[in-house]
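User: quick one, sequence for these tokens?
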């Protein structure tokens, strides 16, 4: 909300710079900053066009003689299509400075001398989208005669000083000039004064051509209408227009501008309808029917049964508190007007505005809350302005659809408790004076106080709110500095977080980079890697289709990262993410949050160099990273990898489940070629581990041991085995039969092809035996080695080579 200092002066004395005021307001807890419009503007004056002739060498240029208050008229060449004799316009004289560093100089345009420039509003700093539409493609023309040579800055508000207040959701009372006047006045111990709007008694008639029915009274506590008869719609006065465009609102006509002006003044949105364009002489506030259409200037919006609408017969006049239709819009031909002031449920307005992407000034105020105690007064003020600017003949009394008498909030507290919470020792008079500056009424009974809060401050409910207000106005900077008292709390992470951090450090040590992704995915993404068969959790009001569902896997986000980088020729990637996913079983209302650790690797893992050959990532490289992670969990569990083809977007021949004591805790493998093609990425390997399940595993009891004193003995074993036999099965059987001195088994050779039986493979293993307490003999080793070979031949029908 931008607070005009000139406007503010109508309510409170203002004798401070805009910078000082913005700083002081910020110190009360409402962030604000100074805005000085048009600081760069110079040499802009009113000009009176006395003569216009066609340019001899141009079809569209005109040579104008302009009175700018000097002894003689000056000549200016102008190309605006709307330039004409006897217009009062904005003139930038020789040496004038305009926005964006533009400087005006004397010169010649196609041989004709030009001593300045006749300007449009957009050329002097008013954004084109907020200036009156009639001047979009031409110069600005004053409606009334002005004094040639006078500066235009005050006339057009080009150099207004403003305070830009960053509104927090609980302080929507400052979304109106009157509420801002209370807030700013309190910081300077100045109470604002406001004039009550009044109407001419001879114009208010007992007319009632329209009836109103509010079907959803819980969502619409207040809904008031008034009729205006025999209205002459025209332009609003310049003082009103300039205040509107400085608030980023385009002036339209005297009726609509008065409604928007009231919204800025009171913080209460006002809507207007052309009474003669209504389909029926009745207004109803109800939920829309599915398929109803809201007609807007740029198209139609299809409505549903969740949208609260205002209708006349079958005609949808608008979304309540959000947007009005163009069907009954007030224009220059309007003769009779219906004016609306209402209060609509903030949650309903917010959801509707988000659903249809129609958030604006009205919805912003209803979402945060409006003062329910000034609805009728705001309507009266709007009518007053319309009467002043549109020559209204007759005005109806209030037509009430629903009205709820707003009651002030009563808060009880005590002086001693307020002082205790603030750490101060303010007197009763000092605290009462601070509350009085805010417009609160205070009754004192000894130490107890009873504070009556006006309806404009609906954010206040409990005694703690009083403490905050006293603190703000007294000044946070004036609070005494004290050291915290009490027992110190020992810092540190909980055990689950420590495990996650340890795994994260391991991946960083492996050369992987950490990424952070959104927790919201599209429907296709949550279906792509739903390995745990989780129910999808959809947001009620998603911002976009790409962010509709809570993620059930970290892999889709990593795939996005890979695609983004590879599209920019960054092909060698090693990334991981440690975050939560959301799992929901059938019938569960709220999803469970589970911590996962996932990674994605593509391209080369070893770069090409003078002494090395480039090595691309493969399944076993990624599996090795996962094995190292599992080894650092210190879990007393048997980790195994089981090949699988049940994940549709994983390669069926290069994917494995990760099991701990037979329970699935994750996966590792290559993305399916079709999935990679759909996402425009090259070969990529991924892994995913459930950190919560790893944490729940029992920990090993680790004991330190001295280095072995006795040498080890190794044996190599080469076998021929069928292709469908997995290496893990072989290794497990070797350990089961190798005896207590078998310490390690490593596969060092795999061969398939020439001189090997069909559907067979040759595997080579290195076995290491060691006795920590004595020297092993060949007989002991051979005995264990024979048992290993015999078991393999019996269980897997291997051939010893």
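Assistant:
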């Amino acid at each position: 909300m931008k607070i005009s200092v000139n406007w503010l002066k109508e309510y409170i004395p203002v004798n401070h710079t805009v910078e000082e005021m913005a700083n002081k307001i910020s110190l009360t807890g409402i962030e604000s900053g100074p805005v000085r419009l048009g600081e760069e503007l110079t040499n802009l004056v009113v000009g009176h066009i006395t003569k216009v002739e066609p340019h001899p060498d141009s079809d569209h240029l005109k040579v104008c003689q302009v009175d700018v208050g000097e002894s003689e008229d000056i000549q200016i060449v102008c190309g605006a299509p709307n330039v004409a004799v006897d217009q009062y316009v904005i003139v930038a004289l020789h040496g004038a400075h305009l926005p964006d560093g533009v400087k005006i100089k004397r010169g010649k345009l196609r041989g004709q001398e030009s001593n300045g420039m006749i300007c449009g509003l957009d050329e002097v700093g008013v954004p084109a989208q907020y200036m009156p539409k009639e001047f979009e493609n031409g110069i600005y023309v004053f409606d009334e005669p002005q004094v040639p040579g006078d500066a235009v800055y005050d006339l057009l508000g080009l150099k207004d000083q403003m305070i830009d207040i960053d509104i927090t959701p609980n302080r929507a009372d400052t979304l109106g000039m009157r509420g801002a006047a209370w807030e700013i006045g309190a910081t300077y111990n100045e109470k604002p004064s406001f004039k009550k709007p009044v109407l001419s008694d001879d114009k208010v008639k007992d007319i009632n051509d329209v009836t109103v029915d509010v079907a959803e009274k819980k969502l619409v506590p207040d809904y008031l209408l008034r009729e205006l008869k025999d209205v002459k719609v025209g332009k609003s006065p310049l003082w009103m227009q300039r205040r509107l465009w400085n608030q980023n609102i385009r002036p339209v006509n005297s009726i609509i501008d008065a409604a928007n002006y009231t919204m800025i003044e009171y913080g209460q949105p006002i809507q207007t309808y052309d009474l003669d364009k209504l389909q029926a002489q009745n207004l109803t506030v109800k939920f829309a029917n599915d398929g109803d259409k809201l007609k807007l200037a740029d198209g139609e919006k299809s409505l549903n049964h969740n949208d609260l609408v205002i209708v006349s017969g079958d005609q949808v006049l608008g979304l309540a508190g959000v947007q009005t239709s163009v069907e009954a819009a007030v224009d220059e031909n309007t003769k009779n007007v219906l004016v609306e002031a209402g209060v609509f449920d903030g949650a309903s307005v917010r959801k509707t505005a988000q659903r249809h992407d129609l958030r604006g000034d009205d919805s912003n105020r209803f979402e945060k809350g409006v003062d329910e105690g000034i609805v009728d007064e705001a309507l009266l003020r709007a009518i007053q302005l319309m009467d002043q600017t549109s020559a209204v003949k007759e005005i109806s009394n209030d037509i009430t659809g629903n009205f709820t008498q707003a009651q002030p909030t009563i808060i009880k507290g005590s002086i001693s408790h307020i002082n205790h919470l603030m750490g101060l020792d303010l007197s009763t008079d000092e605290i009462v004076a601070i509350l009085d500056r805010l417009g609160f009424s205070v009754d004192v009974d000894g130490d107890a106080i009873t504070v009556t809060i006006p309806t404009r401050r609906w954010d206040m409910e409990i005694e703690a709110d009083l403490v905050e207000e006293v603190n703000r106005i007294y000044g946070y900077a004036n609070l005494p500095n004290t050291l915290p008292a009490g027992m110190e709390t020992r810092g540190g992470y909980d055990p689950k977080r420590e495990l996650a951090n340890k795994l994260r450090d391991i991946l960083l040590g492996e050369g992987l980079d950490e990424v952070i992704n959104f927790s919201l995915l599209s429907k296709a993404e949550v279906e792509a890697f739903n390995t745990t068969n989780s129910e999808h959790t959809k947001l009620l009001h998603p911002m976009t289709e790409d962010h509709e569902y809570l993620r059930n896997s970290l892999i889709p986000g990593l795939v996005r990262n890979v695609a983004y980088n590879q599209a920019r020729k960054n092909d060698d990637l090693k990334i991981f993410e440690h975050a939560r996913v959301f799992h929901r079983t059938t019938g569960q209302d709220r999803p469970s949050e589970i911590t996962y650790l996932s990674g994605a690797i593509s391209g080369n893992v070893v770069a090409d160099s003078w002494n090395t050959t480039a090595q691309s990532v493969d399944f076993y490289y990624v599996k090795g990273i996962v094995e190292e992670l599992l080894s650092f969990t210190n879990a007393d569990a048997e980790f195994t990898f089981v090949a699988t083809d049940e994940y549709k977007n994983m390669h069926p021949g290069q994917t494995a489940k990760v099991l701990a004591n037979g329970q699935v805790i994750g996966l590792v493998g290559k993305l399916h070629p079709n999935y990679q093609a759909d996402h425009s990425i090259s070969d990529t390997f991924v892994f995913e581990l459930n950190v919560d399940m790893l944490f729940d595993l029992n920990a090993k009891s680790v004991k330190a041991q001295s280095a072995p004193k006795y040498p080890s003995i190794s044996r190599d074993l080469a076998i021929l085995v069928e292709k469908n036999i997995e290496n893990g099965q072989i290794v497990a059987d070797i350990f089961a039969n190798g005896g207590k001195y078998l310490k390690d088994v490593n596969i060092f050779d795999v061969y398939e092809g020439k001189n090997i039986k069909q559907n067979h493979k040759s595997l080579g293993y290195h076995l290491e035996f060691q006795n920590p307490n004595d020297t092993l003999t060949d007989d002991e080793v051979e005995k264990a080695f024979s048992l290993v070979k015999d078991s393999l031949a019996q269980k897997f029908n291997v051939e010893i080579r």
